[in-house]
Amino acid sequence: MSKVFVFDHPLIQHKLTYIRDKSTGTKEFRELVDEVAALMAFEITRDLPLQEVTIETPVGPAKSKTIAGKKLGLVPILRAGLGMVDGILKLIPAAKVGHVGLYRDPETLQPVEYYVKLPTDVEEREFIVIDPMLATGGSAVEAINSLKKRGAKNMKLMCLIAAPEGVEIVQEAHPDVDIYLAALDEKLNEKGYIVPGLGDAGDRLFGTK
Ligand code: PRP
Ligand code: URA
């Protein structure tokens, strides 16, 4: 069974409050999602392996550490996942970025895939699949299926807010994929929206309705 981590860092929780607030406009919403994504990337990369190197400081030689050449890949689920990419890239600028395009059919709530483009060396990369919302879990399960079908072996899922129903579905379908969240909310409503959630992430990020 995969693990679920909820990041309780005060800065993440503080910013998430304003992301949720319906009076927060598009510009501020976008900036806050970007900032929280960066803070979450800081937490999610805690276990990256380090290697010892020797460098010269102005004072003399020093043994120090660098990240041991792990190949990382980010995969935002379009559209709303795009809002988290730049924040993460600020901390991990060398990461390659793939894209999986999915939308949730408003009637059936089933994900419909319309675009996939991944880095060529899929098998060697550790991927972080990104989406602000994990609601029924259909989109995340489908995106991870899509990556696995193309050879990806190593993945984490990072979302701002999840519903317990979505977490359970992802854990059942992909017990090898750990889930990283800023909040685990109460439930889904009858339209498949997370309660209390933040509303429609794509619409709030891009100003559509
Ligand atoms: C939203 C969200 C997730 C999905 C979550 O995308 O960004 O991808 O819904 O719901 P699920 O867990 O029930 O699948 P949406 O389908 O609204 O598409 P958009 O990002 O293009 O707006
Ligand atoms: N997609 C969203 O954008 N918000 C939700 O609450 C559920 C799915």
Automatic annotation (TrEMBL):
Pfam family, one: UPRTase
Source organism superkingdom: Bacteria
Ranges of residues in domain Phosphoribosyltransferase: 6-208
Pathway: Pyrimidine metabolism; UMP biosynthesis via salvage pathway; UMP from uracil: step 1/1
Residues engaged in binding 5-phospho-alpha-D-ribose 1-diphosphate: R79, R104, D131, P132, M133, L134, A135, T136, G137, G138, S139, D200
Function in brief: Catalyzes the conversion of uracil and 5-phospho-alpha-D-ribose 1-diphosphate (PRPP) to UMP and diphosphate.
UniProt-listed Enzyme Commission number(s): 2.4.2.9
Cofactor annotation remark: Binds 1 Mg(2+) ion per subunit. The magnesium is bound as Mg-PRPP.
Top EC class of this enzyme: transferase
Family statement: Belongs to the UPRTase family.
Family annotation (SUPFAM superfamilies): PRTase-like
Key word GTP-binding present: yes
HAMAP family: Upp_B
Names of the cofactor(s): Mg(2+)
Chain coiled-coil ranges: none
GO molecular function, one term: GTP binding
GO cellular component entries: cytoplasm
Keywords: Allosteric enzyme, Glycosyltransferase, GTP-binding, Magnesium, Nucleotide-binding, Transferase
Record: residues binding uracil: I194, G199, D200, A201
Biological processes annotated in GO: UMP salvage; uracil salvage
Official protein name in the record: Uracil phosphoribosyltransferase
